[in-house]
Please model this.
Amino acid sequence: MKKNNYYLHIFSAWNREIITSLVIVLCLVLFILFPVAGAAQNFTRSIFFLVVVPILYIKFILRKSLTDFGFSLKNKKEGLYWGGGMLLVSLLAAFLLIKFTGFKNNYAIPAYALNNFWLFLAYELIFVNIFFVLQEFFFKGFILFSFFERAGWWSVAISSGIFLLVLAFTGSFVWQLVPMIILSITGSIVAYKSRSWIYSYLMGLLFLLLTDAYLISIIK
Model:
């Protein structure tokens, strides 16, 4: 009887986190397994399961504001400080990978973006950016801030760990995703310290732009 009371106490103390964890798992399972045909359906699936469902859950089940989940720019000092610091760390990690591993030879950039600056910007700011912002909202907004109050710094490990588990489960550990793997850690730190996934997103987008631009310069 005492054991049952113990489990009931744990559930009552962590009920929000437990239910949110189930929602996170459901979103990821449906995102991975729901059948789609073509880029348009893939994009729609990503928006629905990574953005729409979490927002509906936050607004109507948790009855919280999106600012509680990092949709804010109010902590400018922390955002700029940690964003700048983690950008340097991310760039250093990328440089070491380019210098000492096969990253440079296995990381693909579309041919049209290699020879035309405007097409390069379009590729980065439209194609890469769209899927990146969806990923940032889900992992560094919804997931990280779901555990922020209870888990503290562990929310950083939870956010990046779940992202890596998704890659492992889907067999997506490829060189092309190495920059995203770096950002899963450094970006989560930025989001945690600034209380905003927006600063993490801005830092990450700049990192992707600079990394791809550097790779193009040495490839050519």
